[in-house]
Write a structure and sequence with these properties.
The protein contains 18 helices and 14 strands. It is of the alpha/beta class. It has two domains: about 140 residues, Flavodoxin domain (Rossmann fold, 3-Layer(aba) Sandwich), CATH 3.40.50; about 280 residues, pyruvate-formate lyase- activating enzyme, CATH 3.80.30. Strand 1, helix 1 and strand 2 form a beta-alpha-beta unit.
Length: about 450
């Protein structure tokens, strides 16, 4: 049986990044693996969780017929090195690049080798056609650009390969309330994101396209039960906008309540979609955590970012979370276009007013392929350090605040917030690290890195 090697590089290093806290899988890849295993011997290496040495990687490259590699802005340097090494090591290897950067700039890969093909769209859609062609013809020829559309009915989308998920230490650092060891699963119940945030690349999201489509309620419940029966007891729903279809979520929660399933879950939502009825049902159905982006306390900055939300809606969402005793994470962003010191100070004050259970502060990062990047491509391209193309680093600054000041604010904001909410940080440390010794080392590395960012 022919071997397929699938790689998920992480940043520009062979080893786990010091920046990353949560370790979450790429869902489309795990769905594609389910299909590919039917026709091929699949070797999957996820750099977020797997200890990948050059020696072990080269061995798998030599033994493989096909290589699939997920290329993003922040792992481009490492991905390019791996592709170059692969071409030298295995003359017969056929390479497929997919992911955000591959979709944005396919010509970049064609200049490297005629053996590199770029997949546009969902990887599992291409995997379905790839397996079909393999059955019909061993001498398959591929286009330079392989486009796959989301043509599958949602309920027909391949299930996630739970074996690959279970054997890795995927987790989220957002701690639940109970002092208990959780085995985290990750899944989505919808595809698409209808919003227009200027900094976001559609290909970086969990799925492609703007139109929202959901599993049927029965199929969603069946897939959740399948996950729980496999030994997982907590689920992070990583839909781009979990509440995009509130009617679906409300009906799903009612089914979960009737099913009496014993698990805890969390979801990413938008503040403007949170309402009293829905959040109450979600809480009763086992939801303990919500994540939503606030970005800035300036309505003018939010308009530039095209968030489509207001500060009033953010505050209302926080109030509803508190009333239902729902934990929530607030994401803030600094260095946004036109942002001033005064705007950032207002954002800091807002974080203290909202009192999220966890706070995350990132730098404004407009990824290649996003609306803002395309409009400011020349200026951004001239200042890009590809190795730092991630929201935990300043890779371009369109605010009115100098880089060195932004970096000081980033560190001090975290310190001010958590030292003024010392019980929160104690709770987070206990619940996040008590049952997971490996994460203690991740925390130490993160602290060392923060100290170095001067």
């Amino acid at each position: 049986m022919k071997q397929i090697l699938i790689l998920e590089p992480l940043l520009n290093t062979y080893y786990n990044s010091l920046f990353f806290k949560s370790r979450e899988p790429h869902i489309s890849t795990l769905r594609a693996i389910t299909l590919l295993k039917k026709e091929f011997d699949v070797v999957f290496l996820d750099f977020k969780t797997d200890n990948v040495s050059k020696k072990s990687l080269h061995k798998e490259i030599i033994n493989s017929k096909y290589l699939f590699i997920n290329v993003k802005s922040y792992n481009l340097k490492l991905s390019t090195e791996i592709i170059a090494e692969s071409i030298k090591l295995n003359k017969e290897l056929i390479i497929f690049a997919f992911g955000q950067y591959a979709e944005y700039n396919p010509e970049f890969f064609f200049e490297k080798s005629s053996k590199i093909h770029v997949i546009i769209g969902e990887l599992y859609e291409f995997a379905a056609r790839f397996c079909y062609l393999q059955k019909e013809n061993n001498n398959i020829t591929f286009n330079s650009i392989e486009k796959s559309k989301s043509s599958m009915d949602m309920d027909q989308i391949p299930k996630i390969d739970l074996l690959e998920m279970k054997k890795r230490d995927y987790y989220t650092v957002y701690p639940l309330k109970t002092i208990k060891k959780y085995k985290w699963a990750f899944m989505n119940l919808s595809e698409g994101c209808p919003h227009n945030c200027v900094f976001c690349s559609q290909a970086l999201r969990i799925s492609h396209g703007k139109s929202i489509r959901n599993f049927s309620e029965k199929e969603a419940i069946d897939r959740i039960i399948r996950v729980l029966d496999s030994g997982f007891n907590a689920i992070r729903f990583i839909d781009d906008d979990f509440l995009a279809n509130r009617e679906f979520v409300q009906n799903l929660c009612k089914r979960l309540i009737r099913s009496n399933l014993d698990f805890r879950w969390m979801a990413q939502v938008r503040a403007d979609k949170i309402d009293k009825t829905t959040i109450a049902l979600m809480k009763k159905a086992g939801c303990e955590y919500l994540n939503f982006g606030i970005e800035s306390a300036s309505d003018s900055v939010l308009k530039i970012l095209k968030k489509g939300e207001t500060i009033k809606q953010m505050k209302n969402a926080a109030i509803l979370c508190r009333k239902e005793k729902m934990l929530f994470v607030a994401y803030f962003m600094i260095g946004s276009p036109t942002e001033t010191i005064s705007d950032i100070n207002n954002s800091i004050n807002l974080s203290f007013e909202l009192k999220p259970d966890m706070l995350q502060v990132c730098y404004f990062t407009s990824y290649e392929g996003s609306v803002f990047y395309l409009k400011n491509k020349k200026k951004i391209s001239s200042s890009i350090n590809q190795q730092k193309f991630h929201y935990f680093d300043i890779c371009h600054n369109f605010s009115k605040v100098p880089n060195r000041i932004l970096m000081k604010i980033w560190k001090r904001w975290y310190l001010w917030y958590y030292l003024n909410n010392i019980l929160k940080i104690i709770r987070i440390l206990i619940l996040t690290y008590l049952f997971y010794p490996r994460r203690v080392f991740d925390l130490i590395k993160l602290c060392i890195n923060i100290r170095k960012k001067k």
